[in-house]
Amino acid sequence: MQRYFRYSTLFFMSLFFVLASLSYGEAAGKITTEDFSYQGIALGDSEEALRSKWGAPDDENVLAVWGIPLRTLTYGDLVVSTSAVNGKIVDINLIGEKYRLRKDVHYGSTSSYLVKVYGKAQRQFLDGYTCYIFSHPTQAHTRLILNLDAENKALLSARITMLPISEEEADALALLDDESLTEFDQNHAFIASKEIDVSELPNNDRVKLGGYVK
Question: What is the pTM of this model?
């Protein structure tokens, strides 16, 4: 009898630890590269690829974000922005109530479920929203932004972007000598946003923002 009791206790303790480990694994979500694309379109893809897969947009506009010239293409509740410099996709904005992300993350998903899918992140305040911001595993300045309802912290909208998210960041990127940022035309954008008079600068390819190139 005692042996039966002992084996039963060991069995239930083992079962408890297995269930606990599974619960912990479920709670420890992780951001993946898949989270930076949507319906076959990813940041860095061309506008031609977008039109080929999604068709003609419902509306098109031009605008500037932190001085960066963009073209916006609207597909229902989805707004895709491409670089006006080279036509590459730099921002995917998912609004409305129909979008579906990895593991069925959608409008109204709870904060606890978002943590299970993407992992833990500090809540931040950006563009008038409380949000979670997740960085790409390998690509700097590429982020997934999940905007939350102010009252119940449920998911409102999602944004996949490689654009700066603050003026300070835009200024810092403009001063970087980084070929990976050429689609933003950062140097030109920085000058335009600061209204710097460049009419007296020499017209020489060896002169660039930040100094003279040897």
Answer: 0.72
